[in-house]
Amino acid sequence: MQPRRPGYLASDITPLIGRAADVTEGVRLLGETRLLTVMGPPGVGKSRVGAQIARLSGRRFPDGVWQIELSSVPAGSCPAPHIASALGLGEGSPGARDTEVGRVVSALRGQRALLLLDTCEHVVDGVALLAESLLRRAPRVRVLATSRRPLNVPGERLLAVPPLSLPDPEPPIRQGRAARAGDPGLSGMSAPAVQLFAERAAAADPGFALTPGVLPVVTAICRRLDGVPLAIELAAARLRSLSVQELLEWLAEPFEVLSGSRSMLSRHRDMRSAIEWSHALCDPERRDLWAALSALDAPFDLEAVESVWSPVAAGPAAGPLAGLVDESVVLREPGESGVLYRLPYLHAEFARRAGGALPHIVPSPRPGADVRVAASALTRSDLAVPAPEPAPEPPSADAAAAALSPRELQVAVLITKGMTNREIAVQLGIAKRTVDAHVRNILTKGSLASRTQVASWVAVQRQCVDV
């Protein structure tokens, strides 16, 4: 029995911004392989990238392109009956997994068609079984999947969809220097993350305009949201009732702000739901590492990962870390001396709010790593039971006035604004290793356990020193 209709592919409602290179690469890969999986973290836009790849590849498939959304299929179940129904094959035998897979394969055998299976991560085993069967028994069919994790099927190619590009950090402001058209502060308007925010903001507030005066605040919002399109869209929609400055301030409690319309899929109605979906798919060991990594200042290296993991588990961190990378929870990026890792800000905030007490952080002697967790400070129970971080003893007025150098005080103030060491280095026009040293000095002089305690100490310093 063949499909009753020649395919289905949903139309885009809003423009796809900043994904031309990803889509072009996806079209190329789909021309070379019969199974392509579009991967990325929650909210990054995998579904839209996959749909656009399918749309531009449609002419290759005269028997149709079938887009089938799998989010409604129960986790761990076989998606073949749902796929058969979407193809118009009617009802099959409930519970007969092999029979349902066979019905889909038989219907598509001989067809020159593309099957776009959207949102596969929670039914990855069933999708993998179907995809492998199609590759073996329906040689003219190609499968395009979107998933937070790979299918791990022979012949699979992966297309990683990263967050949208952000503007480069602005250089230090020099007195008397006028802004020019080529300056990073103005060229930041062309960054895809900023363009997306501006487009969605104008839809929410017709009076919104992306001016050079507004750009720094918009850039800070997009940077806080790691360039994740769904988060940016949800934030921009809040401009119906907030100013951009108020929105940035509200993002101190991101999950209270980042919620959407009822027309969205349930996992996309708010960022908490999108991230909870990933959290539910992780095994306990990966969840523990996720919680531990929320203490680190990204990007971090494998040594920093081991420092937060060794107090929690006897084994090495490489296994669960690889699992979190496969789940698109932790992102890999190249570093000057090897691979670095990043836990996105919202994932870290989710872990902190999910009941994971942060470990105590002490200065790290390693260049390139901002923090290290003391081995004696973190236990498995710390990750499960909230334990409020003790506030530091306030220094005396005289001690506070003398404790920090002017440059260290500058760094401390920027830490309270949520900036990473790399961003502080760019802002002040100094080397990152110099910032690393300043941060270690700040923590040591203030007898502070973490960067989160710097804010309260700066408040004391502001009472004692003219900042």
From TrEMBL:
<dbReference type="InterPro" id="IPR027417">
    <property type="entry name" value="P-loop_NTPase"/>
</dbReference>
<protein>
    <recommendedName>
        <fullName>HTH luxR-type domain-containing protein</fullName>
    </recommendedName>
</protein>
<dbReference type="InterPro" id="IPR016032">
    <property type="entry name" value="Sig_transdc_resp-reg_C-effctor"/>
</dbReference>
<dbReference type="InterPro" id="IPR036388">
    <property type="entry name" value="WH-like_DNA-bd_sf"/>
</dbReference>
<dbReference type="GO" id="GO:0003677">
    <property type="term" value="F:DNA binding"/>
</dbReference>
<dbReference type="InterPro" id="IPR000792">
    <property type="entry name" value="Tscrpt_reg_LuxR_C"/>
</dbReference>
<dbReference type="GO" id="GO:0006355">
    <property type="term" value="P:regulation of DNA-templated transcription"/>
</dbReference>
<feature type="domain" description="HTH luxR-type">
    <location>
        <begin position="397"/>
        <end position="462"/>
    </location>
</feature>
<dbReference type="Pfam" id="PF00196">
    <property type="entry name" value="GerE"/>
</dbReference>
